[in-house]
Amino acid sequence: MKVVLDSNILVSAIEFGGKPDKILKHIISRKVVGYISEDIINEVLRILDRKFAYLPVRLVQIRNFLRAAFVVVIIGSIPRASRDPKDDHILAITNEQKIDFIITGDKDLLVLRQYRNVPIITVNDFLQKYET
Q1: Mean pLDDT across the stretch 56-70?
Q2: Where do the structural domains in the chain lie, given as residue ranges?
Q3: CA dist., res. 17 & res. 14, Å (int)
Q4: What confidence tens digit (pLDDT) does each residue in 37-62 have?
Q5: Residue 74: helix, strand or coil by DSSP?
Q6: Out of 38, 66, 85, 117, which residue is the most buried by the measure of CB atoms under 10 Å away?
Q7: What is the DSSP code (8-state) at residue 75?
Q8: Rounded to 5 degrees, what angle do the CA atoms 125, 112, 4 make?
């Protein structure tokens, strides 16, 4: 199974654990293949820095971790598909790779329900499908 985690899911997993962390652990154990872009990595690091005041050394560790745990995808063109253009880079990964799910908590993405036949679902929806 191949997934893209939105930055909000990654921040939640790193900072709070819980259900988002369950998905991250599936990716770490290679039960699920996670795809990420440099845009997503940079967004995660920006949020951790601004909202949670992570030290620079910790941000470097997280960057290295994300690059090691996920398949980093080079994005070509970015579609104009979401009602918030800042979210379109998440969708762009599906232009480069065959993805099974985009997992997010972002309402601007969830409202689409799918992009290029890739379901856009919540953490709970994914865990229900994956763990049953």
Answers
A1: 98
A2: 2-130
A3: 6
A4: 999 999 999 999 999 999 999 999 99
A5: coil
A6: 66
A7: P
A8: 55
Q: Where are the alpha helices (DSSP H) in the chain?
A: 7-15, 18-28, 38-52, 56-69, 88-96, 107-110, 123-130
Q: Is the C-alpha dihedral spanning 63, 70, 91, 119 positive or negative?
A: negative
Listed residue (84, 85, 124, 121) closest to 101, CA to CA = 121
Where does residue 28 rank: exposed (0-12), middle (13-18), buried (19+ CB within 10 A)?
middle
66 within 8 A of 41, measured Cβ to Cβ:
yes
Q: Using alpha carbons, list the distances in angstroms from residue 119 to 22, 42, 57, 72, 112.
A: 19, 24, 36, 20, 9
CATH T-level fold of 2-130: Rossmann fold (3.40.50)
DSSP 83: S
